[in-house]
Amino acid sequence: MTKLNKLSFALWVFVLLSVTIGSLLPLNKVPSGAFMMGDKFLHLTAYLAIGTLALLGSRYRKAQFGLLGISFGVSVLIEFLQPLTGRSFELMDILANGTGLFVAIPFVSYVIFPLIKRYALNINN
Q: Could you give the CA distance from residue 87 to residue 51 in angstroms, rounded to a whole number?
């Protein structure tokens, strides 16, 4: 596992936990400016970041897709738990989360990996 994989995996865990905690806060505890760009856009970009980190978190395709699966599973679980915190279940949130994870695949393949290769960022230590 490279330094980039280790750092990405650690960030994946941190961001997924942060999004989970933020998503389970009662709405009166969420900062008022959090939805300025739109709720679904916020979901899509958060899970695009999570998906990107999941794909960078391992060298192995099977593990990468395992992390994406865990990420999607957590997003579905969050939606089912939200009614317990005074929020509502929204199927469109799950769709936006899944879209963000799906968009991460070509984003990493066609943007991030070429940048890593170009600037030799994949240090093996």
A: 24
Domain ranges of the chain: 3-24+40-118
How do the pLDDT tens digits run along the chain, 125 residues long? 789 999 999 999 999 999 999 999 987 665 555 555 678 999 999 999 999 999 999 999 999 999 999 999 999 999 999 999 999 999 999 999 999 999 999 999 999 999 988 887 655 54
> CA 5 to CA 8: how far, in whole Å?
5
Task: Please name which of 18, 48, 53, 12 lies closest in space to residue 34, comparing C-alpha atoms.
Answer: 18
In whole angstroms, what is the distance from residue 20 CA to residue 59 CA? 25
The whole-angstrom separation of Cα 64 and Cα 77 is 20
User: Which stretch of DSSP H or E encloses residue 105?
Assistant: helix 91-107
